[in-house]
TrEMBL record:
Family to which this protein belongs: Belongs to the glycerate kinase type-1 family.
One MF annotation (Gene Ontology) recorded for this entry: glycerate kinase activity
Protein name: Glycerate kinase
Pfam families associated with the record: Gly_kinase
Organism annotation: Robertmurraya mangrovi
Gene3D superfamilies: Glycerate kinase, domain 1, Glycerate kinase, domain 2
Enzyme class: transferase
InterPro entries for the chain: Glyc_kinase_flavodox-like_fold, Glycerate_kinase, Glycerate_kinase_RE-like, Glycerate_kinase_sf
E.C. designation(s): 2.7.1.31
Superkingdom of origin organism: Bacteria
């Protein structure tokens, strides 16, 4: 029996690699002579660097950069195998989890660190980038990133504005002629499953601003400033990109990376291609996948749905094993053959996160017993 284990992370409690290894232990404990292949997945958010580095036998490179609040933080990027491609993620340079709840305010966060990280990679000779955009704390339209790479943004007095979200409100002129030319000689894949434009009711600020701490007043101010910023940028670029689906990803970082010549791709697809997931699944008997919480939104581009659809293409039976299942999840069975939660009784969210590894192991072991019974019966 060949089983592929390809989960997303259980955000806040386990990485995708930890989820995969826990399920693997349970399967091997319950079933003799089982072949288990673990393929930790991600969608461009937290864990994307780790998943791709592990899958390609690459290396993690540790470095300092400017964090979302403007202070120096430790971060990491990955080199894929021995190639010249590097993987970066917003979650580890200006991620929402890096900002305490009481300090979340998109006026006071910046994407400057991601620009520093890109520049450091250019200095090291890398010219092929995959940049995961999930989990950002910023809503600066990539202002900070572009400043770190040499872009100039001036106020009404001709002075350079600051690097934070609030500084979008003061921009009156954009100069991109001093942006590091090496970035335009590079390939940039933008890994994101967000299809929002930059501005408007469906844009970055209105849709994602509240979870980053934006007040109603800030949302109105930032969206208006973002539109002005986009118009000035596009005047300089001589092309319209702010309405491109995905330009609103990561508080507008999608827009800034499109301006630098980046190409948007589904985050789950980028990871799946890099790890050759479809080839691995082609002769499997079962797939285990999962995430922190599954509901009908899972079917709209989330990792479990993506890998489940790939498995279905090859007639592989698919088991969804997530931290919890939402209400009215019958639609999940259009992709998955069976759906399980790791919880085994009344339990609080905090308790389930603290004991997630044990709960996951026990539930995976129980499911494995069923698979063993089916195998023996067959």
């Amino acid at each position: 029996m060949k089983i592929v284990v390809a989960p997303d992370s259980y955000k806040g409690s386990m990485t995708s690699a930890e989820v995969a290894s826990t399920i693997e232990l349970a399967l091997k404990k319950a079933i003799d002579h089982v072949e288990v292949l673990t393929v930790p997945m991600a969608d461009g958010g937290e864990g994307t660097v780790e998943a791709l580095v592990k899958a390609t036998n690459g290396q993690l490179i540790h470095i300092m950069c400017t964090g979302p609040l403007g202070d120096k933080v430790k971060t990491v990027f990955g080199q894929l195998g021995k190639s010249e491609t590097v993987i970066l993620e917003v979650a580890s340079t200006s991620g929402l989890t890096m900002v305490p709840l009481e300090n979340r305010n998109p006026f006071k966060t910046t994407s400057y660190g991601l620009g520093e990280l890109i520049k450091s990679c250019l200095d090291k000779g890398f010219r092929s980038f995959i940049i995961g955009l999930g989990g950002s704390a910023t809503n600066d339209g990539g202002l900070g990133l572009l400043q770190a790479l040499g872009g100039k943004f001036l106020d009404k007095n001709g002075n350079e504005v600051g690097v934070f979200g609030k500084d979008l409100l003061n921009i009156r002129e954009v100069k991109l002629d001093r942006v590091d030319p090496r970035i335009f000689q590079s390939t940039i894949i933008i890994a994101s499953d967000v299809d929002n434009p930059l501005c408007g009711k469906n844009g970055a600020t209105h849709v994602f601003g509240p979870q980053k701490g934006a007040t109603e007043e800030q949302i109105l101010l930032l969206d208006k400033a973002m539109k002005n910023y986009a118009q000035l940028m596009e005047l300089e670029l001589k092309r319209n990109i702010h309405e491109t689906p995905g330009a609103g990803a990561a508080g507008g970082l999608g827009f800034a990376l499109l301006a630098l010549g980046g190409q948007l791709e589904s985050g789950a697809n980028v990871v799946a291609k890099a790890v050759a997931l479809e080839e691995i699944l082609s002769d499997a008997d079962f797939l285990f996948t999962g995430e922190g919480r599954s509901d009908v939104q899972t079917l709209h581009g989330k990792v479990p749905s993506y890998v489940g659809t790939l498995a279905k293409k090859h007639k592989v039976k698919t088991i969804l094993l997530s931290g919890s299942l939402g209400e009215n999840t019958e639609e999940l069975y259009t992709v998955f053959d069976a759906c399980f939660s790791i919880t085994n009784g009344p339990i609080s969210l905090d308790e389930s996160m603290v004991h997630a590894k044990k709960l996951l192991y026990n539930q995976a072991f129980n499911i494995a017993q069923l698979l063993k019974f089916q195998e023996n019966k067959g």
